[in-house]
Amino acid sequence: MYKKAVEDRRGTFTPFVLSVDGLLHKEASHFIKHMATALSSKWDKAYSITSSYIRSRLAFARVRAVSLCLRGSRTKWRSGLEFDDGAPLASFME
After folding, report:
1. How far apart (Å, rounded) are the C-alpha atoms in residues 70 and 90?
2. How far is the C-alpha of 34 from the C-alpha of 28, rounded, in Å?
3. How would you classify residue 12: left for phi > 0, otherwise alpha for psi between -120 and 50, otherwise beta?
4. Does residue 21 contact residue 39 with C-beta atoms inside 8 Å?
5. How many Cα neighbours within 13 Å face the side chain of 62?
6. How far is it, in rounded angstroms, from Cα 16 to Cα 28?
7. Which residues have a Cβ under 8 Å from the Cβ of 24 and sit 6 or more positions away?
8. Which residues contact 59 (CB under 8 A, 6 or more apart)?
9. How far apart are CA 44 and CA 56, in angstroms?
């Protein structure tokens, strides 16, 4: 599905796959290593520091994603209609 669009842009597509336990797939692990190598040279930091930074950020992102799936959004849903006195509610109740 993505292969044609990626080839048109002369890029690569790497799915970021995790198991139910939070274990990284082989390609996701390779992607993190590649990103850590590129960022360590860009930021002029050691590979180990950059790799641990990326892994910790991804760990917190996984926790936030799971929490959002289990608990739901923190914001309450609003319809966008704001009424001060509630008068138009009668038309919705009919």
Report:
1. 35
2. 10
3. beta
4. no
5. 15
6. 5
7. 17, 18, 32
8. 22
9. 19
Map tokens 């959004």 to a residue. Answer: 73
Q: State the residue for tokens 């002029």.
A: 44
With H, G, I as helix, E, B as strand and everything else as coil, classify residue 21. Answer: coil
* Predicted confidence (pLDDT) per residue in 3-39, tens digit: 788 888 888 777 888 887 778 888 888 989 999 999 9
Taking residue 62's Cβ as centre, other Cβ atoms within 10 Å add up to 13
| Whether pTM exceeds 0.70 | no
Calpha distance 42→59 (Å, rounded): 23
Number of helices followed by number of strands (H, E) in the chain: 4, 0
Query: Model confidence over 46-92: pLDDT tens digits?
Result: 999 999 999 999 888 888 887 777 777 666 666 555 655 655 555 55
Looking at residue 19, the DSSP 8-state letter turns out to be -
